[in-house]
Amino acid sequence: MTVPFFAMNHSFSSALPLLEEGLDAFLDQSGWVNDKQVRLLEQAIEVYTGAPFAIATGNATDSLIISLMALGIGPGDEVIVPCYSFFASLSCVLHVGATPVFVDIEPGGYGLDCALVEAAITLRTKAIMPVHLFRQMVDMQALKVIAQQHRLWVIEDSAEGIGMRWDGEHAGLIGDIGVLSFFPTKTLGALGDAGMILTRDPLLASRVRQIMDNGRDAAGLAQCLGYNSRMDDVQALWLRARMLELEPDIARRAAHCAAYDEYLEPLKQWVQRPVTLARDCLQRTVNYVYLIEVPQRDALAAFLTARHIGTEAYYPLPLHLQPVCEYLDYQSGDFPVAERASTRALGLPLYPDLTPASIGLVCTAIGEFYAAQGTAQ
Ligand SMILES: *Cc1c(COP(=O)(O)O)cnc(C)c1O
User: Fold this and answer.
1) Residues 203-212: pLDDT tens digits?
2) Residue after which a domain boundary falls, among 243, 264, 290
3) What would the pLDDT profile of 213-244 be if each residue is shown by its tens digit?
4) Of 69, 80, 292, 376, which is most buried by a Cβ count within 10 Å?
5) Any ligand 1 atom below 6 A from CB of 147
C-alpha cells in the first residue's frame, strides 16, 4: 500500500457532476477569464468569509505582490516578515523593490513571534506580513496593537488560512488586506493555480481590481502600472463546486489529525505532535498540514519514502538563509526557533480522502523507524 503526501481522487469524483453541469453553461458563454464564473466565486467567498470585497487573482503569490503595490510599498520601504515561511513571503517583498526584515517564529506555533516585532521596526518600516501557517493563526490581537501604535499596514498571508477564524473574523480580514491560495493541495484547492485578495477597504479593493487587470479601470483606461493576474473561469467553476464540501472537508481533516494524535501518543518520546497555542481570543483552527517535529527528520523521511509514504519537510531552509537574500547579510544562528524547526519539522499526509488504515500505516512505520534506532533523543 502506498500513502501519497497528497491525493484527491475521491474529492475529484464528488465534485465532477457539478463541474460537468456547470461546464455546459460555461462552454456556451463567451468569458473564459475573470468573467461570470469568477464573479460567482467571489460572491461565494464573500458570503463564506464575511469579506466586503473578495477579488479573484491568478494565485496567492501574485496576490501578495498586488497587495503591496496597492498599498504603495516599494523601494526604500521595509516589510517585516517571518523567516520561516513559503518562498512567497520573501519574493513578494523583493518584487516591489522593498526590503524584507525577518523576525523569528513563536515556539510551537510557527507564526511570527509578536514579542519580537517591535525590535524590528525602523523609520522605514511600512508593513508587517504575518503568515498563518499549517493550522493556526498568528496572535492577531498583539499584532494589531503594535501595528496601530506604529501606524503600519498589516498584510495577512492567509494563503493556508481558509476557514481559520480569530474571534469570529475570518483570516485575512483582521489586517488591512489578506490573501487566499487555491493551489490544488490547499484546504480549498483548484485544478491549477488560483488565488484571492480579501479586504474591507473599498479604495484598496478598487486599486487591487485595476492592478490585477493590467491597470485598467472600469472605463477601460489604464490608470496605473498593472499586471495580468486573473483567475480562469473554469477554475472558479470548479472551486464553487468544491466549496460545497469545504466544511465537511475541514471536519474530515480534524478527524484525521485526532487519529494521528492518538496513534503517535505512544511515540511521544520521539515525536512532538502539533499544539494549539493559548490565545486571549477564541480561534478556529483548520488543519491544513499535520506537522510533527522529530529527531533525525531526514532519515525518517527517507525511511518513509522507501515504504511508499509521502512526507514533506516544511521548511528545510529558513528564508533568511536563502541564496537570493545573501546580500542582506543574515547569518545562521540569527533566528534559533525557526532554524531548529527547519531541521526537525515534517508534514505527514493529510487530505480529506485519507483513510484511517493509511494513518495507521504511517504511524506504524514511524514507530518502526525509531524502534530500530534504539535510542531516544
Ligand atoms: C501556498 C502558499 C503561498 C503561495 O500560494 P500560491 O497560490 O501557490 O502562489 C503563499 N504563502 C503561503 C504561506 C502558502 O502556503
Assistant:
1) 999 999 999 9
2) 243
3) 999 998 999 989 998 999 999 999 999 999 99
4) 80
5) no
